[in-house]
Design brief:
Largest sheet: 6 strands, antiparallel
Number of strands: 6
Number of domains: 1
Order of helices and strands: HEEHEEEEH
Radius of gyration: 14 Å
Strand content: 25-35%
Shape: globular
Length: 127
Amino acid sequence: MNIFYRLSRIGKGREETSEKPKFPELQTRYYAADFSQVFQKVKELENEEVMGRMIKVDEARGEVLAETALEKDQFDVVLTVIPLESNVTVLDVVSSIRTKKGDGGKNFLIIDRILKIMDKSLPQNKV
């Protein structure tokens, strides 16, 4: 993440993964694993330093709402797990800062850390 990206985040309080992101780190993830395996790994993120507290876990909808902190800022993070086909599961992440209009690139850092942990735990499927 460069200085120009950080400057572009002035006034932007939200970042998310997508199919065609500006940065490859924010690419939607496709894992070669079934829904239950991916959702279990998402729930285990609560034990990681990057994630604070799980506020709501809704396995039926495939969503986890969590809160975390980075420096003095508070963030809400939504992780969405979607079963795509047999043994292929999608993970999307949205991170939003709570108290400011701009995040200075911190949402990017949170998402990047989450995805790195998930990528180490599960094999990716190149769709």
